[in-house]
Amino acid sequence: MILPDDHAGAGKLKAKLRNSRGGMSDIVIHDLSAAGCMVDARGTGLRVDDRVLLKLQGLEFQPAYVLWKEDDNAGLTFERILSESVYEHLQNQLAMAKAA
What we know:
CATH class: Mainly Beta
Distance between the termini: 14 Å
Shape: globular
Order of helices and strands: EEEEEEH
CATH superfamily: predicted glycosyltransferase like domains
CATH architecture: Beta Barrel
Radius of gyration: 13 Å
Strand order of the largest sheet: 1-2-3-6-5-4
Structural class: alpha+beta
Strand content: 35-45%
Number of helices: 1
Largest sheet: 6 strands, antiparallel, barrel
């Protein structure tokens, strides 16, 4: 999912995040690697070492852990590295969103 241009997070990928306490949040992904991502963590209640489930567009929930949290951002590491084809697909979506 890509956020519309009139949204404050325009040009970013949108995802769903389920925290360890069962809460579900819509989040914005700022940066992505095959091993993890940086997300806007405002309103998520995330804490370092939390295990979360991240729902990226077209994928099942990806288990991940919160590595760090600073100000409004958090770094997540995936339990399993994304496959090359999935990673390239998501990177292309992110690049297109940033170009829009």
